[in-house]
Amino acid sequence: MNTLLDPLLLPDQIALSESDRRSAAAKLDNAVRRGALAPSAAADRQELLGNARNRGDLRQVFAGIADATPPRGLTVALRAVTGVWLVACVVQFVIWVTLAVFGHFDWPWWLWSDLGLGMVVAILWWTHESYHRKTDVQVGA
């Protein structure tokens, strides 16, 4: 798949970077400090983290720890809205080019909806990525 579209269409299949691993380790340490995770359980999860290959594997590492990974609904929304956006971009561009070929060349009207949907995709992507960048977890009372 295209490296530009992978984070949008397959966010759980992105390979873990060193930054992702450091952030995940900090989340585990934070969960131990806050009492949400026993040190022995954290050691087991550190081992899982060492074996994790992609961001989807982090769901197993952080099972039961709230706010550590993006909710499944956010991941599904990112994938769905990105798919709709890409299809809309392609369909509208093809229609515009077809009209231009038959002499109805007009300004690129399709940019308005493509940019609008693109902003929604950008917001969803930013929100999804924020879960991987933070090093803190919320502990339920």
- Shape assignment: elongated
What is the percent of helical residues? 55-70%
Q: Strand share of the residues?
A: under 5%
SSE string, helix = H, strand = E?
HHHHHH
Report the mean per-residue pLDDT as an integer. Answer: 89
Main β-sheet description: none
Calculate the terminal CA-CA distance, rounded to whole Å: 42 Å
User: What structural category characterises the helix and strand content?
Assistant: mainly alpha
Radius of gyration: 20 Å
Unreliable spans are none
SS field, number of helical segments: 6
How many strands in all?
A: 0
Oligomer: single chain
Provide a descriptive summary of the structure in words.
By secondary structure, the protein is mainly alpha-helical. The protein contains six helices and no strands. The model has no long low-confidence stretch (mean pLDDT 89).
